[in-house]
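User: My advisor, Dr. K., asked me to get a structural model of this assembly before our group meeting. I'm new to this, so sorry if the format is off. These are the inputs:
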Amino acid sequence: MFTTTVLSSDSQASPVAKGLEMRDPRKVVANGTNTVTAGIRNDVIPWVDDLLAVRDARDEAAFIRLFGHFGPRVKAFLMRTGMDAALAEECAQEVLVTVWNKAHLYDATRASPSTWIFTIARNKKIDALRKQRRPEPEDLPWGPEAEPDQAEVIGLQQESEQLGRALRDLPEKQRELIEKAYFGDLSHSEIADQTGLPLGTIKSRIRLALERLRHSMK
Amino acid sequence: MTVKHHLTDDLLMAYSAGDLPEAVNLIVATHISLCDECRAALGSYDAVGGAVLDTCDSVQMSNNSLNSVLDMIHAQDNQVQDKPVLAKVQDDVLPAPLVDYVGGGLDNVRWRSAGMGVKQAILPTSKDATARLLYIPAGTAIPDHGHHGLELTLVLQGAFQDEDGYFSRGDIEVADEDMNHTPVADISEDCICLAVTDAPLKFKGLMPRIAQPFLGI
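Assistant: The format is fine. Below is the predicted structure of the whole assembly, which you can bring to the meeting.
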């Protein structure tokens, strides 16, 4: 378990960060210098810490912080899928209860807290609006590696932050389409109806946006 | 196993966003169970969803929201949690999502004859699209057909060949409205596929067209 001290700008001095450098020096270099990443880490990693504290220690204070950050976002997301405020409130509460109940399934090397909570909120949406089951892929068998590699955790969280910035930097029209595709519960052809754009244009704009995101991740 | 025919970006993104009919979700989840490349791609689409969640606006929760949530988690934590752990059925042909819908392994599939030695079993999903398992004897051709909508075919055992290429276990064929094709099961082994359609197939010959309403394909 790492703490937020790792993430401060003097992480050079932190024993955990040193451990990381020893474990995988290339990764640290590849992720950029400490001065560049310091700000990012402070933004993102606290949610990992809090989620891991909920998972491993059933830490209620950490859960309350997660609730404060993600509750209003999940509620906004659910309202954009067409729920009224009351239903969205109820479902957002259930999503946060699920975060508590399923925290043992959270793997910080596989998803950022936002991504993980997004998938829970999405499943809630399918459950509430479509009244359907959601088939999930078979779990990968666990490898021999028992302890998650912390460099891997940090790398993934940094990538997530980078992705968030790339998304914010997209041209307005492209970003709107991505948001509609994820939040509007709209198929591409329904987006076409709504925006008055031809389907081909929608598809190529979404493709362009995804390519930009991909490019920014390189 | 090397999968050669993959899901489209459209389908992966829509699966991640949760915008697909249940039957289509089922075939996507089954393909991903067999395909590391699409599993990784799905991870990226989910990450985009997470980024959108994080960067978009927020709506204030109601006043007593936190207290109700804390009450719920306390109430649950106080309950004795001894749900029986179901022994998971492992099947060599059916990946976990299908085991779920079949209610067991390949032996538990309730096949119904569809003529010419072909058997099918329709899986219980919502009505907006249909998922069926198809059993096609080695070397048998499925009649030439086009589609009104989307047809997705995922190979689980054996292989088939059509105008689009050679498909073996894990490969998925995405056929749209414009495509007419005649899949032929490989001679070496009986072929088992999961096929999903969001509209009835249209067969070219007269006979199959008459038989279609009875076969339900």
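One thing worth pointing out at the meeting: Confidence is low (pLDDT under 50) at residues 1-44 of chain A.

User: Perfect, thanks a lot.
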